[in-house]
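Researcher: Structure prediction, please.
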Amino acid sequence: MALSLDVIYHLVEDEIYEKYMEQLFASSSKYVCIYSCNFEKRHSQHVRCRKFTDYIDKKEPEWKMIKKIPNQYPYDSKDKENTSWSDFYIYEKRLSNGTGKNIDCNDC
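Model: Predicted structure follows.
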C-alpha cells in the first residue's frame, strides 16, 4: 500500500504534482490511500487544494476509489486548530481481464 498523508495540497506547481501522483500510484500494486482535501482552491503561496479524484480518473484509469472515509472533524472556521478539510480516499488497482479492459475486483 502506498500512502499520501497531507502532501498533495502542498504541491503547488503542476509539474511536481503530476510527477508525485505518477510516482504514488506506481509505488503500489494493489492499494493507495490518500488523506487530502479534494476541491480546487488556492489558500496561500504554499497551499493549493486540488480535486485529485478528477486527475486520478483521467490519468490512472486502472485505479478505482473503493472507499471515502469522511473526516471525523470536518473543517470549521471557528475551530481551525482541531478540524481539517481532508478526508481519506482509498483506491484499489483493477485487474485486467486479458482483453485490455479493466475489471473491478468485485467481479472476480
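Model: The mean pLDDT is 90.
Researcher: Thanks, that helps.
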